[in-house]
Amino acid sequence: MEIRTGAEVADVVRKGDSVVGVETTGGRLDADYVVNANGPWAGRIAEMAGIHLPVAPERRQIAVVEPAAPIPESVPLTIDLDTGSYFRPEREGSAFVGGHFDSASDSFADPNAYDRTTGLDWTVEALERAGNTATYFAPDSRVKQGWAGLYAVTPDHHPIIEKTVPGFITPVGFSGHGFSTHQRPEKIVSELVFEGESSLVDVSGLDSERFENGETVSERNVA
């Protein structure tokens, strides 16, 4: 295995209908398969291959909060499915507080240039919603720090897992929960490469054609 760091993909190389490699800032790499597991950048990489993928980088924020009342470490990740607010205990008595409230600040973002800090209006709303969900949070809760990152989001908030064209495998659009399920997608990608299909689970309903065919199942409870 060869790992190259700091080599940005500049183009995807096609030969006829097949993808056969990538051009990078460190030179060309020929490959039997290119796996587009690029998260927020996946749409741009697909465009280099002449492919449209309905996946967009969307900004999400999270705050590290010192609750008004200690949260036992045994408390699990808690989500208010009606509002999208969530929290979970963190080390030394802190808590992660987050949520997506359809704010204008949490919309499409340039993955190479976006605001990585939390906004004041969002932070106030996140704490208010957390306080409506659990008594751990009150007006004297203290915000210690926060940051923003990007989700790779599809229109129905479900991932795209497919062999998009010969030589080009797409596992993307996990909308923030790809890391927690990463072993299964990795196994599926491996099977798509070496077996041509997945035996672990039927992923036919997760191909990108579902958006053109109107066969989506929208996820209502999105945090």
From TrEMBL:
InterPro entries attached to this UniProt entry: FAD-dep_OxRdtase (IPR006076), FAD/NAD-bd_sf (IPR036188)
Domain FAD dependent oxidoreductase: 2-181
Presence of the UniProt keyword Oxidoreductase in the record: yes
Pfam family membership, one: DAO
GO MF: oxidoreductase activity
Protein origin, superkingdom: Archaea
GO cellular-component term (any): cytoplasm
Keywords: Oxidoreductase
UniProt-recorded name of the protein: FAD dependent oxidoreductase domain-containing protein
Species of provenance: Haladaptatus pallidirubidus
